[in-house]
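tool_call: predict_structure(chain=1)
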Amino acid sequence: VYPVESGGGLVQPGGSLRLSCRVSGVITSVFNPRDMGWYRQAPGKERELVARINSRGVTDYADSVKDRFIISRENARKSVYLQMNSLKPEDTAVYYCQGIIPFDSWGQGTQVTVSS
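tool_result:
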Protein backbone atom coordinates (compact mmCIF):
# COMPACT_ATOMS: atom_id res chain seq x y z
CA VAL A 1 0.00 0.00 0.00
CA TYR A 2 1.53 3.28 -1.05
CA PRO A 3 0.44 6.75 -2.15
CA VAL A 4 0.96 7.98 -5.71
CA GLU A 5 1.27 11.75 -5.99
CA SER A 6 0.91 13.89 -9.11
CA GLY A 7 0.27 17.44 -10.24
CA GLY A 8 3.48 19.22 -9.37
CA GLY A 9 5.38 21.49 -11.70
CA LEU A 10 6.99 24.87 -12.20
CA VAL A 11 4.82 27.88 -11.40
CA GLN A 12 5.44 31.59 -10.99
CA PRO A 13 4.98 33.29 -7.62
CA GLY A 14 1.32 34.02 -7.04
CA GLY A 15 0.25 31.08 -9.19
CA SER A 16 -1.73 27.97 -8.32
CA LEU A 17 -1.35 24.20 -8.55
CA ARG A 18 -3.56 21.28 -7.61
CA LEU A 19 -1.88 18.16 -6.33
CA SER A 20 -3.54 14.76 -6.41
CA CYS A 21 -2.80 11.62 -4.47
CA ARG A 22 -4.31 8.18 -4.88
CA VAL A 23 -3.47 5.46 -2.38
CA SER A 24 -2.69 2.31 -4.29
CA GLY A 25 -3.53 -1.13 -2.96
CA VAL A 26 -5.75 -0.05 -0.08
CA ILE A 27 -9.32 -1.13 0.46
CA THR A 28 -12.02 1.42 1.15
CA SER A 29 -12.67 0.21 4.68
CA VAL A 30 -9.02 0.96 5.53
CA PHE A 31 -8.73 4.26 3.66
CA ASN A 32 -11.99 5.92 4.71
CA PRO A 33 -11.32 6.15 8.46
CA ARG A 34 -7.67 7.16 8.01
CA ASP A 35 -6.70 10.75 8.69
CA MET A 36 -4.60 11.92 5.73
CA GLY A 37 -1.93 14.55 5.35
CA TRP A 38 0.14 16.41 2.80
CA TYR A 39 3.78 16.78 3.71
CA ARG A 40 6.63 18.61 2.03
CA GLN A 41 10.38 18.46 2.13
CA ALA A 42 12.55 21.28 0.88
CA PRO A 43 16.25 20.77 0.12
CA GLY A 44 18.25 20.55 3.32
CA LYS A 45 15.15 20.62 5.53
CA GLU A 46 13.12 18.10 7.48
CA ARG A 47 9.86 16.78 6.09
CA GLU A 48 6.95 18.80 7.51
CA LEU A 49 3.20 18.30 7.66
CA VAL A 50 1.45 21.20 5.94
CA ALA A 51 -2.19 20.07 5.82
CA ARG A 52 -4.32 17.29 7.24
CA ILE A 53 -7.89 16.07 6.90
CA ASN A 54 -9.70 13.60 9.08
CA SER A 55 -12.28 11.01 8.13
CA ARG A 56 -15.11 13.51 8.64
CA GLY A 57 -13.50 16.16 6.44
CA VAL A 58 -12.24 18.39 9.25
CA THR A 59 -9.04 20.13 8.15
CA ASP A 60 -6.02 21.71 9.76
CA TYR A 61 -3.09 23.63 8.29
CA ALA A 62 0.40 24.74 9.15
CA ASP A 63 0.57 28.48 9.75
CA SER A 64 2.82 28.88 6.71
CA VAL A 65 0.09 27.71 4.31
CA LYS A 66 -3.09 28.69 6.14
CA ASP A 67 -5.54 30.65 3.97
CA ARG A 68 -3.62 29.65 0.81
CA PHE A 69 -3.85 25.84 0.65
CA ILE A 70 -6.98 23.67 0.74
CA ILE A 71 -6.93 19.94 1.42
CA SER A 72 -9.81 17.70 0.39
CA ARG A 73 -10.49 14.00 -0.01
CA GLU A 74 -12.64 11.75 -2.17
CA ASN A 75 -13.09 8.45 -0.40
CA ALA A 76 -14.69 6.68 -3.36
CA ARG A 77 -11.46 7.23 -5.28
CA LYS A 78 -9.22 6.68 -2.24
CA SER A 79 -7.76 10.06 -3.09
CA VAL A 80 -6.61 13.24 -1.41
CA TYR A 81 -6.06 16.62 -3.06
CA LEU A 82 -4.18 19.82 -2.24
CA GLN A 83 -5.22 23.07 -3.90
CA MET A 84 -2.33 25.50 -3.57
CA ASN A 85 -2.97 29.18 -4.25
CA SER A 86 -0.85 32.33 -3.97
CA LEU A 87 2.28 30.22 -4.17
CA LYS A 88 5.54 31.62 -2.85
CA PRO A 89 9.17 30.65 -3.58
CA GLU A 90 9.39 29.20 -0.08
CA ASP A 91 6.70 26.66 -1.03
CA THR A 92 9.25 24.99 -3.31
CA ALA A 93 9.61 21.38 -2.15
CA VAL A 94 8.78 17.78 -2.91
CA TYR A 95 5.22 17.16 -1.75
CA TYR A 96 4.04 13.82 -0.38
CA CYS A 97 0.74 12.52 0.86
CA GLN A 98 0.52 9.90 3.56
CA GLY A 99 -1.73 8.65 6.31
CA ILE A 100 -1.25 10.37 9.65
CA ILE A 101 -0.79 6.77 10.73
CA PRO A 102 1.37 5.91 7.73
CA PHE A 103 0.62 3.29 5.14
CA ASP A 104 3.31 0.73 4.27
CA SER A 105 5.44 2.99 2.13
CA TRP A 106 5.94 6.58 1.09
CA GLY A 107 5.40 7.50 -2.54
CA GLN A 108 7.86 9.25 -4.84
CA GLY A 109 6.31 12.62 -4.16
CA THR A 110 5.74 15.38 -6.68
CA GLN A 111 8.09 18.33 -7.17
CA VAL A 112 6.70 21.84 -6.82
CA THR A 113 8.96 24.69 -7.88
CA VAL A 114 7.86 28.29 -7.44
CA SER A 115 10.11 30.63 -9.35
CA SER A 116 9.99 33.50 -11.79
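agent: The two ends are 37 Å apart (CA to CA). Proceeding to next step.
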